[in-house]
Design goal:
This protein is mostly beta strands. It is about 5% helix and about 45% strand. The chain contains two helices and 23 strands. The chain has helices spanning about 10-15, 235-240; strands at about 35, 45-50, 55-60, 70-75, 85-90, 90-95, 95-100, 110-120, 125, 130-135, 150-155, 165-170, 175-180, 185-195, 200-205, 215, 220, 225-235, 245-255, 260-265, 280-285, 285-295, 300-305. The strands form four sheets. Strands 13, 14, 15, 16, 17, 18, 19, 20, 21, 22 and 23 form an eleven-stranded mixed sheet that branches. Strands 6-7-3-2-10 form a five-stranded mixed sheet, with no helix packed on it. Strands 5-4-8-12-11 form a five-stranded antiparallel sheet, with no helix packed on it. The radius of gyration is 21 Å and the shape is elongated.
Length: about 300
């Protein structure tokens, strides 16, 4: 597990000023549609799963489970939008084991995919509880070089105890492998996947909601063309925040004319980092600054006025 994990303090739990621009996530219960069957948690079937390093997920029903014939994955629609994308998988029997396999291809659209069971094709959906999840193959995923497009899947348990899959699909990605925080600065070591660093590469912190306002830092790059590090001075970042409060999103531009690639942490077994990996707050330039992971596991820095 990431050694950066810490318990949230009460103050940090309340510090959620990024809500205005972060994509809001409804609770799992709010996003269920009328086609779902809501049953007592003690009688709901359980589905476990295992994922390999290539992203292939095997879903398992425990012995003695009812004769469900299909497993359905539904891309969770945004609020007020209709359901658009589903994948239906057949269960196969091998001894006392019944499983359904989601291969690495086709890739899943970026978003949250809810898991359902079907007794027969077209039958009413039933939401299973989450069984055992074997995610060992994902723990050191940041060490494997990924090609473009980068497709990531992480099975996880929802707030209501159901099984779901978090997916990312990006042309390129910069994986934050180490984040060192001091009272004066933040230093990030990262690796680029799906692209390479070239002359003119620059790290850019863009102030959310202001368009062109950005703070740039020259990265230190390694000979492999993908590993780099950078340091952001807190006092400089605070001075560059016009209103004294805001959120800076961190990206890297691999070359002078290349599109920006978001820096974040996607390549391990954590589907939601925001409430798990918490960095300390420091004061500089009359402001409080705190790096954090957004709801999409991207790295940002929050600047707020000191009391």
């Amino acid at each position: 597990m990431d050694k950066d994990r810490e318990q949230l303090t009460d103050r940090e739990q309340r510090a959620d000023t990024d809500k205005r621009a972060d994509r809001e996530q409804l609770t799992d219960r709010e996003q269920l549609t009328g086609t779902d069957t809501d049953t007592d948690t003690e009688t709901q079937p359980h589905v476990g799963c295992a994922i390999d390093a290539g992203g292939r997920i095997t879903f398992d029903l425990p012995p003695g489970s009812p004769d469900e014939h299909q497993l359905l994955l539904r891309l969770r629609p945004k609020k007020g939008q209709p359901e658009k994308t589903v994948h239906v998988l057949d269960f196969e029997t091998a001894g006392d084991r019944r499983c359904a396999v989601l291969d690495a291809r086709p890739v899943l659209v970026e978003g949250r995919w809810d898991v359902y069971l079907l007794r027969e094709p077209g039958a009413e959906r039933q939401r299973p509880r989450a069984g055992l999840r074997d995610l060992r193959a994902l723990v050191d995923g940041h060490r494997r070089r990924r090609q473009s497009p980068l497709a990531v899947r992480i099975p996880y348990v929802t707030k209501d105890g159901h099984l779901a899959v978090r997916a990312w699909l990006r042309t390129a990605h910069a994986e934050a492998e180490r984040v060192d925080v001091t009272g004066r600065s933040i230093t990030v070591s990262a690796s680029l996947h799906g692209a390479s660093l070239h002359e003119g590469a620059v790290v850019s912190l863009r102030l959310r909601g202001t368009g062109p306002v950005a703070h740039t830092v020259e990265p230190l790059t390694e000979d492999d063309g993908r590993t780099f590090s950078f340091t952001v001075d807190y006092a400089e970042l605070a001075a560059g925040t016009p209103s004294g409060a805001g959120v800076w999103d961190v990206s890297v531009r691999p070359s002078a004319d290349a599109p920006a690639v978001r820096v974040g942490r996607l390549l391990d077994d954590l589907a939601d980092r925001k409430a798990i990996v918490v960095y300390p707050t420091a004061e500089a330039g009359g402001a409080a600054l705190r790096p954090y992971y957004t709801v999409d596991n991207d790295l940002s820095v929050e600047v707020s006025a000191t009391s």
